[in-house]
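[Q] Does anyone have a clean structure-token version of this?
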Amino acid sequence: LVSPALAKARIESQWGHFGAQSPALKPHNEISQSMRVDDREVGRITLWYPDDGVPGDARFLPEEISLLRNIARHVSDAIKRRQADERIQRLRYLYEMLSATNRSVVHSQTSEALLDGLMNALVAHDTFPIVFIAESGGDPWPLHLKSHRGIAVEHLPLLERMIGDPPTPLRALLGEVARGEVFCEALQQLPD
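[A] Here you go.
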């Protein structure tokens, strides 16, 4: 670098922005390198000299450009390894949840023990931070809340109304799920 003390650096990625604030106008002397994982850009490293801080003929050397390219490649490789580790961890949690669910089904002597075992399997490792279990009395509706985790006490009356009142949007949503169609829909608040 011509003057390392004056050089500025910034990393922009899906996780945020780190380093110096980007100048309002693109500096005359700037180099940038994308960080890629599986041919998808996940971030960018940018180096520049402020226009008012260095002589006009200051330029990055080819070796510095190559160094930035290597840094971006190393960061990309680290991101890819971290993503693979996170995927392995999620799969491990899923396997543990499935195993705990199977143990609960096989070893539970009562419906209460079964539901407790299922709830514990679902909330282990914070896989599902908000979950409830409801059961019917034989008919599909109304449902009755048996247990819950992560639902604020002040929201329980609304949840109980939604699972107990057949014409709510939740009933339509559960019908879609029962047919194997899983999707997300914003539920409107019920009138008081």
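[Q] Thanks! Anything notable?
[A] Residues 95 and 101 are 10 Å apart (CA to CA).
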